Amino acid sequence: MSAAPSGSNPSKTRDSDAQPITDKAPVPDQSAAADKPAQSARGARPALPLAEATAPTPRARTATGPPGGAAKPAARTETRVPARVVVAIQGVTKSYPNGRVALRGVDLTIPEGDFVFLVGPSGAGKSTVIKLLIRDELPTKGAVLLDDRDVAKLKRSEVPKIRRKIGIVFQDFKLLPNKSVRDNVAFALEVIGTPRREIAPAVDRALRVVGLTGQADQLPSQLSGGEQQRTAIARALVHNPRLFIADEPTGNLDPLISWEIIQLLLRINEMGVTVLMATHNAEVVTAVRKRVVALEDGRIVRDQVAAAYEREG
Hints:
Elements: H1 30-33, E1 85-95, E2 101-111, E3 115-119, H2 126-133, E4 141-146, E5 149-150, H3 159-163, E6 166-170, H4 181-190, H5 196-210, H6 225-237, E7 243-247, H7 255-270, E8 274-278, H8 282-288, E9 291-296, E10 299-304
Parallel strand pairs: 3-8, 3-9, 6-7, 7-8
Antiparallel strand pairs: 1-2, 1-4, 4-5, 9-10
């Protein structure tokens, strides 16, 4: 894992529940582990059921003998299993009646389990990409596919169902002020008709993942900014989405708390969830070194893995 951005210290946090991501185990319940050192849990099952069917894709590798030892009788190569495509944007152009063109011939494929930073200046087209994915808008040309479904061709009755495959958080949290943390998260399941007996355990799991079990009965006004954003993340995660979209999730947070939120998103990604994050935070993007898709004037000008915010070399 890359080091934290300069000027931040992940070992010190303002939110008592936040934890650095050091392995692939679920975030432990803070009430039970506040005074215990982190332990390895490689065999532990993920905190949310969504990870059970989304194990990381194995990479091809060749068996070799130990250094200085006898050679193996024969080299064996494992076959790489192609990752399932979660998002496919194909030749998409988006224009408006006033003549403004927000996207121009965009092609973008995001496989299952990927973590993608969507970067670019204001007006480059980042928000338009997100609106197309959640079907707030339709492309003028081209196709937007989510789990092999062309979202523009969905019947009106099918739109809520496809949106349930997406979890989304914004920089302004959008929490219900008169509901507790627990009730804010539960609301996401209540509105889609989840059986009552399933809501409480699902909410508890989501709160454990984000480290907010101790704040479950507090109102948003009683939380710090980082805790409010983690509440929003739990709400977006509680229904086991295929795609997790974070639209400038650290825009209203200071650098230290921003880094905590990024670590949480990385943990969610390690659980098997595909993550797309739109951001201007160059320091975080460069430190994390994930896939970077850069937009300028509605076009993708760079798509690199393990990349920095700005083009290098």
